[in-house]
Structures are given as C-alpha cells and as structure tokens.
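Here is the promised in-class demo. Please do not try to memorize the tokens; focus on the logic of going from shape to residues.
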C-alpha cells in the first residue's frame, strides 16, 4: 500500500529536521533588524534556487516564492514566515549565539523562516502528489510599523495569483514542544502607538505657583487616561491602554518645561479602536489645557487585530489532530499582543496558529523579547511538517 501524502510529509519532515535546525542556528547567529534583512533575504533566495522554486523580491527584502503542483489553477494557498530580529543583546551562552551585538532573534522569526524553507523543500519534492499553487511569503519588518505585511499587500502579494487562504505560524513559549494550538475568530489585538508632549512654564521647584507643573499635569493625565477603558469600553470587549514611558526633568530643584509620554493602545474591535483614539485625544487635550499647559498628541495607527477565519481554523486544527494526534492540539488563548499577519487576515481568510517550543527538562521556559529567549529545536520538525501539510492539502 502506498503512503498517504500526510505520511510522506511526516517522513520527510523527520528526515530533514537536522538540516533545518542547522539553518535556524545560522539565521539565529546572523540576525538583522526590521527592513534591513538583506543577508537573510539573500540566504532565503539561495535556498529557493536550490529547491528549484521561482521567486520575486518585494518590499525591498521580501522574498515571494511560487510553487506549482498538479493543476496549478485549482487552488492557491499562501504560507507566510517573518524574517526580522529585535534590537536586543543576546545573553545566552550557546554555539549559535548572535554574532551581532544589540541584535537578536528573540521572537522566533529564525524558526519561522527555517520551517517555511523546510516546507518549501518538501512541497517541491512532492509537487506531483498535490494539486494547486503555493505562494511562499518570506516577509520583512513584522516587528516595526507600518508592518511588512502592509507593504507587501500594497505591492500586490495577494494578487497574480490571488491566494484563497493564508497560513502563518508563531512559536509559543508557554506551549509544550510537540504541540500546536489554534483559535478561530479574534486571536490577537490591534496595536497603536501613543506619543504625547506636554509643554508648560518651568521654574524653581520651591516656587511652583509661578509654573505650569508639567510633572504633575502628566501624572494626572496618566491616571485619567485609564477611565477611557474602565468607564467607556464594554467590559466584555478586550482592550488595554498602557503608558510605558515618562520622560521629564533631570534634577531635584527644577520643574521642567516639557514632559514626554509614550504608550500603547490595544483592542479587538475596529469601531471601538478608532472611537477610543478620539477619546484619548479629547481627554488629553482638555485636561492638559485646563491645567495651564499645552499639548502635542499623536497616535500612530499600527496593526489591526488578528482575525482567524473560523472555518479555515477549524479545518487546519482537524489536520493538525490527524498529523500529531488529538491530544497534541490545544486551543490558543486570547492574547493582547499584536501581529502584522492581521493585515492579511482582514483581506483573505487566514489562520494564524502556534507552535509549542517550551521544554522544562531542557530549561527552555523564557518568554520572547528577552535576552535569554530560546526554543526547543525539536519543534522545528513539527513546524516544517505542518506548514507543508497545509500547503499541500485543502483546508478550505
């Protein structure tokens, strides 16, 4: 009896795991910041050439591969990985430690790129076994506004040919290695950046009556902004407003003439999101002016919330259960983090799922965006296989 396509994919993922663990280590040692993924892009291009996969360049460093199976026009599915690293100095003592001070793959994008390359190799080898076309999206700039996804969409990544669906995968540091997780509907929040400058008459700290105390005004504003969420938002509508930076003054006896605040606003409802923007601006302006100071306020609109298509996610979860076993597939928890995969998910049906990389026995328990982040590389075999399976088989 001949092996099923799923069995063939599983066998090849196991056979190639070591190769793509080595690729992950190379990428980890050579990280590049958002929109500066020049060497990473060239590396991906080189690998696609080795796999006999045609590609084009978009958004400067983005690499878009196109792979045809039998009956190429029957279906088109997109598989996406991000390539950029973060401005963090790595503190891990490992052979593949970042060779670039101040830059680190602290979010697993090296894993995502390696897994998609592995899936590409498998899909290329098995192209006579599956139908349709797979578009491989190696994306720049996920970590930084305006998000590489938005640029790629503007440059036509969802056209010629137009995918009917798109899948993305992210490492999950609180999910055990060997597992995947899925969730339909809302899954991650929108993310917007808040920048506020308060300007007033500074002066001697011993004579506050002659000043417009920008420190005091900013403090009142930080507290007051919380009522945007607590008294205007539906409690069943997830939302977060956090002021994360307070810069003003540099000595004990001077009230400064300027204070700068920065923060983030998160939501899972687009109507509430932009209504809240107006409320933040109105409250901030009126409060600051009522206390005798001036204000400049800017809200940089970032990523929308990630919307997983219910039907697509259920179908992908079912495939994962067949691939790994039902006990190895879980429900992804709702998260207020953001992902620019959201841009794709608001254009075409999308499914953004999680790859477990947590392993207590190996001491791999540290979260992302930290200097000691790492992953259990045994997860790479699963990531390669699942991405290849979603590319090769109908999940619509």
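The designed amino acids, position by position:
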């Amino acid at each position: 009896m001949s092996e099923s396509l799923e069995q063939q994919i599983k066998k090849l993922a196991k056979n190639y795991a070591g190769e793509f663990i080595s690729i992950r280590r190379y990428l980890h040692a050579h990280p590049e910041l958002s929109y500066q993924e020049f060497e990473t892009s060239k590396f991906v291009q080189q690998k696609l050439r080795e796999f006999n996969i045609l590609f084009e360049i978009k958004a400067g460093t983005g690499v878009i591969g196109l792979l045809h199976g039998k009956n190429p026009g029957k279906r088109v599915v997109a598989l996406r990985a991000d390539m950029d690293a973060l401005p963090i100095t790595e503190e891990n003592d490992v052979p593949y430690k970042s060779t670039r001070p101040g830059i680190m793959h602290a979010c697993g994008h090296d894993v995502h790129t390696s897994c998609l390359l592995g899936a590409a190799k498998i899909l290329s080898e098995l192209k006579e076994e599956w139908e349709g076309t797979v578009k491989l999206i190696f994306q720049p700039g996920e970590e930084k506004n305006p998000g590489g996804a938005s640029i790629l969409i503007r440059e036509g990544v969802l056209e010629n040919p137009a995918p009917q669906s798109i899948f993305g995968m992210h490492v999950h540091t609180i999910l055990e290695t060997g597992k995947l997780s899925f969730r339909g509907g809302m899954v991650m929040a929108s993310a917007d950046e808040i920048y506020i400058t308060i300007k007033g008459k500074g002066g001697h700290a011993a004579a506050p009556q002659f000043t417009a105390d920008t420190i005091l005004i900013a403090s009142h504003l930080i507290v007051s902004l919380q009522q945007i969420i607590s008294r205007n938002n539906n409690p069943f509508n997830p939302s977060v407003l956090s002021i994360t930076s307070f810069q003003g003054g540099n000595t004990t006896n001077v009230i400064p003439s300027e204070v700068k605040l920065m923060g983030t606003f998160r939501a899972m409802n687009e109507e509430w999101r932009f209504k809240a923007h107006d409320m933040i601006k109105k409250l901030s302006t009126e409060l600051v002016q009522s206390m005798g100071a001036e204000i400049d306020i800017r809200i940089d609109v970032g990523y929308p919330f990630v919307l997983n298509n219910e039907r697509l996610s259920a179908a992908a979860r079912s495939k994962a259960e067949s691939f790994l076993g039902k006990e190895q597939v879980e429900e992804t928890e709702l998260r207020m983090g953001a992902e620019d995969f959201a841009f794709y998910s608001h254009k075409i049906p999308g499914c953004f799922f999680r790859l477990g990389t947590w392993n207590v026995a190996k001491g791999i328990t540290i979260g992302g965006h930290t200097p000691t982040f790492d992953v259990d590389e045994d997860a790479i075999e699963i990531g390669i296989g699942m991405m290849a399976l979603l590319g090769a088989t109908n999940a619509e």
